[in-house]
Amino acid sequence: VPDMPDLNQRNPHLATYLIQNSIWWIEYARIDGIRHDTHPYADFDFLAKWCKAVDEEFPGFNIVGESWYVHSAPLSWWQRNSVVNGRQTNLQTTMDFSLMNACEKSFGYRSADRNPLRAVYELIAQDFIYHDWEKLLIFLDNHDTSRFFKEGETALSRFKQALAFLLTTRGIPQLYYGTEILMYGEKKDGDGNLRKDFPGGWNEDTSSLFDREGRSELQHEAWEYMQKLLQWRKTSRAVTDGKLLHYAPDYQFESYVYARIADNETVLVILNGSDKEQTLPVKRYHEAIGNYTSGKDVITGETIDLKNDIRIAPKGVWVLKMEN
Fold first, then answer.
1. Looking at the predicted structure, is the pLDDT value of residue 251 above 60?
2. What is the CA angle 56-57-59, rounded to 5?
3. Contacts for 273-278: CB closer than 8 Å, 24+ residues apart
4. Which of 52-66, 90-104, 147-161, 291-305 shows the lowest mean pLDDT across its residues?
5. Which of 64, 114, 206, 234 is deepest in the core (most CB within 10 A)?
C-alpha cells in the first residue's frame, strides 16, 4: 500500500544490512525470538538467506513466520525442509491459522454442527504433510482476529475445552493476553476492540484484574483453570515432547480422544463435543491406555477408573495422567 513502501531486498547491499541489523539487535537486546509479520509477502530468496544467517549465528534461536493460510498445504510449503516445496525456506516455525479456524468450528459459539470436534481431528490427521509438526505455532486467536471467548450460558465450558486442547495437542501454544480473564472483542468492531488494555497496572485504573479482588467469579475460575493447566504442563514431557495418538470422533459419542505418549508417561485427553453426558467404551482406546488402570485429572485431582467405560459430562473435558 502507498503508506508502506517496500524495501528492495534483492539489492545485495540492503540485504546484507538487514541481516547484520537483525543479528546486532538479537545480540544487543538479547531477543529470545522473532515473530515476523506477513512472512510470505517479502522476497523469497532474501527471507531464506535471512533465516539461515540468523540460525547459523544463533543456533536454537527461532523465527516464527506469520503465514495466514486456511489450509495445511501452504503452511507446510513455507516450513523449512518442506516435503511439498522444492526450494528451501529455512523457516522453522509457521503459524497454524488452519488449526485456529478448525478450533473456531469445533469449540466455537456459532456452530450447530453435529459432531463438531471432527474439524480439529481431521486437520491434525493431515499432519503428515509437515516436515515438523512439533514446530507449528498454535493459537485460538490473536490481535488480528475476533477473540475466541464469547459470552453465553455455556461459554466457560467451551472455553475450558478449547484451552485444554490447545495446551495438550501438538505444536507450540501461543496465548493472547487477556485470555486468562475472558477478555472478548469482535473483529467487526475494529482492531482497537481486540487490543484493549488489560485492566490494572496503572494508577488511574479503577480496578486491577491482576489481583483476585478485581476478578469476577467467572473470570477467576477461568484464570485458575489456565494457571493449573500451565503449571502442570511444565512438568509433562508427554505433552511437550511426546507422540500423539488420536481417535476419530464418531457420530454416536461425538467425543475426541487422544493420547500424548513419551517414555513412561501417558496423558489421555477426552473432549465431549455433545450437549449430553457420554459413556465411552474403554476398549476402543486400548492402544493408548495399555496396562494403565486409572487416570488422574490434572485439574480436579479426580481419579477415573479405566477398567470400566468412561463417563464424561456434557461439553466436558478430562486431562488424565495415567496411573496404575
1. yes
2. 65
3. 273/106, 273/115, 273/116, 273/117, 273/249, 273/315, 274/314, 274/315, 275/314, 275/315, 276/314, 277/311, 277/312, 277/313, 277/314, 277/316, 278/253, 278/254, 278/311, 278/312
4. 147-161
5. 64
Looking at the chain, list the stretches that DSSP marks H as alpha helix, in order from N- to C-terminal side: 12-29, 44-57, 72-78, 97-107, 118-124, 155-166, 191-194, 217-233, 237-241, 286-289
Q: Distance from first CA to last CA of the chain, Å, rounded?
A: 61
Mean of all residue pLDDT scores within the chain: 94
174, 164, 154, 166: which is closest to 110 by C-alpha? 154
- Distance separating alpha carbons of residues 250 and 252, to the nearest angstrom: 6
* pLDDT of 110 over the 70 cut: no
Q: Return d(Cα 285, Cα 307) in angstroms, integer.
A: 11
Supply the DSSP string of 5-40, one letter for each residue: PPP-TTSHHHHHHHHHHHHHHHHHHT--EEEETTGG
Q: Annotated catalytic, 180?
A: no
Residue pLDDT, tens place only, 84-93 = 999 999 999 9
Which residue among the candidates 43, 55, 66, 205 is catalytic per the annotation? 66
State the amino acid at position 169 in one-letter form.
T
Crossing angle (nearest 10°) for helices 12-29 and 44-57: 40
pLDDT in tens, 144-179: 999 999 887 678 999 999 999 999 999 999 999 999
Whether residue 104 contacts residue 148, with contact meaning beta carbons closer than 8 Å, is answered with yes
197 labelled catalytic: no
Give the predicted TM-score (pTM) of the model.
Answer: 0.94
Catalytic residue among 27, 37, 277, 287: 37
Cell numbers placing 18: 538487514
Instruction: Give the mean pLDDT of 187-192.
Output: 93
Please give the pLDDT value at position 108.
75
The CA distances from residue 60 to 30, 52, 63, 90, in Å, are: 13, 12, 10, 13
Taking only the tens place, the pLDDT of each residue in 122-134 is 999 999 999 999 9
